[in-house]
Design a protein that fits this description.
This protein is mostly helical. The protein has 17 helices and no strands. Helix 2 packs parallel to helix 13, helix 6 crosses helix 9 and helix 15 packs antiparallel against helix 17. The longest helix has about 35 residues. The chain is globular and about 60 Å long. The mean pLDDT is about 85.
């Protein structure tokens, strides 16, 4: 008898395809030795979008990813990115960054600010040369600020995975790179909060921007002074032995979803709230929470986010502006992140081999870049064409991180320090 593609059957087919497809491709083809899985997941999502599958098999694409079938995916994608932002905040241990000296602080700031300023300058030129790249709510300086942040991003969790695969996690250069990336992530959320306040208050003038900013600072203050100690005591009661049971999982999830809801309510993005919730978790429980939530979030939930991201990416081979933006953004990212890290690291006393390796590790973008791009697209700062070009930039920069680091490591060691 003929089969009927019911909504439930369609969702199950989509879920199997999205969860198993990129993972099997990564594990069984040897790609895991060339690129982190996040790169394969993003490319898999783009391949399922209008740029590839929609172009090659429009009927099949329309059946699998018709707009009506995306509603269940949207909810799962939202959960995925909320949990990932929370886990990123959980990875960030501010205590580990204290007492590292001026050299560490200087390199950390330079590795973020140099590419961000370069990206902002490029963004000002792009908005004049290619006006279609700016989103509907973006005046030139707002677009430039958002574009600069996109260039300056470094993804902490994906960088950790790359360092683990390269055997650098236990070496000093690996620990320094993770420290720089942690500072980059903290600075990223400060900058993105400012851009979101600017975008949210743009129609109401400086008063609206100030209102959103003040609410954001008030939220951070309440989180630090009130929510953190309350959460600490509550988790002491439900997880006294440090093991995360069912009650502790529910408390943790309620805290992160509540924090995300508050930032969404005050005009900032829900992702910011999820990230701050991660930083507010007691550090003694961080490893146990990661053990309970990380694999499910990254392997099961995140593929749904990548699918919707891929469906938003529409690469037009005939659109020269899009390819110019991709090429210029990629070059600026690689140059800005590498030189903005390597040269200050060398001035701070690192050897040339270590300085260059640190420089080539920092362009790693991963999912964090895709999240930032999604935030800016939804805020009306970026157009869909610019979003597509920068997603491709994130894929290329992340894929190049490991081979570039291996290459400069071998070359630098042949040159006297």
């Amino acid at each position: 008898m003929p089969f009927t593609l019911t909504p439930a059957l369609l969702f199950l087919v989509q879920a199997i395809l999205l969860i198993a497809g990129p993972f099997l491709l990564w594990r069984l083809t040897g790609l895991k030795h060339l690129a982190p899985m996040v790169v394969i997941q993003i490319l898999f999502g783009i391949a399922l979008g209008p740029s590839v599958l929609g172009h090659m098999a429009p009927d099949l694409w329309g059946t699998l990813f018709a707009p009506a079938s995306l509603a269940p995916l949207s909810g799962l994608a939202l959960l995925a990115v909320v949990f990932f932002a929370f886990l990123t905040g959980l990875h960030l241990d501010v205590a580990e960054l204290r007492g590292r000296g001026r050299g560490f602080v200087g390199v950390s700031l330079s590795s973020m600010l140099v590419p961000t300023v370069m990206g902002g300058a490029l963004g000002l030129w792009i908005v004049d040369a290619f006006p279609g790249m700016a989103g509907p709510k973006a005046e030139p300086w707002l677009f430039a600020a958002g574009f600069g942040i996109c260039v300056g991003v470094t993804a902490l969790p994906v960088l950790g995975a790359i360092l683990r695969e390269m055997g650098l996690l236990e070496r000093r250069v690996g620990r320094l790179a993770l420290g720089y990336a942690a500072v980059n992530d903290a600075m990223l959320w400060v900058l993105i909060t400012g851009v979101l306040a600017w975008a949210a208050g743009g129609s109401g003038g400086l008063g609206s921007i100030a209102q959103v900013a003040l609410l954001g600072f008030a939220y951070l203050g309440v989180t630090e002074l009130l929510a953190r100690p309350v959460l600490d005591r509550l988790l002491d009661r439900v997880a006294p032995d440090g093991r995360i049971g069912d009650t502790a999982v529910v408390v943790t999830c309620a805290a992160l979803l509540g924090s995300a809801a508050v930032t969404e309510l005050i005009g900032l993005h829900y992702i910011l709230g999820a990230f701050v919730a991660g930083t507010a978790m007691p550090r003694r429980l961080a490893a146990a929470v990661l053990d309970r939530l990380e694999h499910f979030a990254t392997l099961i939930l995140l593929p749904f986010f990548f699918t919707l991201t891929g469906l938003k990416v529409n690469l037009d081979l005939a659109a020269s502006a899009q390819w110019w933006v991709f090429a210029l953004a990629t070059a600026t990212t690689l140059v800005g992140k590498t030189l903005g890290t390597a040269l200050p690291a060398r001035m701070a006393g690192e050897s040339w081999p270590d300085a260059w390796q640190l420089g080539t590790l920092m362009p790693c973008k991963g999912l964090m870049e895709v999240i930032v791009l999604t935030i800016l697209l939804e805020a009306g700062v970026l157009s869909s064409a610019c979003f597509s070009a920068l997603v491709l930039m994130a894929v290329v920069a992340t894929a190049l991180t490991q081979p570039m680091t291996l290459l400069v490591g071998r070359f630098a060691r042949t040159v006297p320090a």
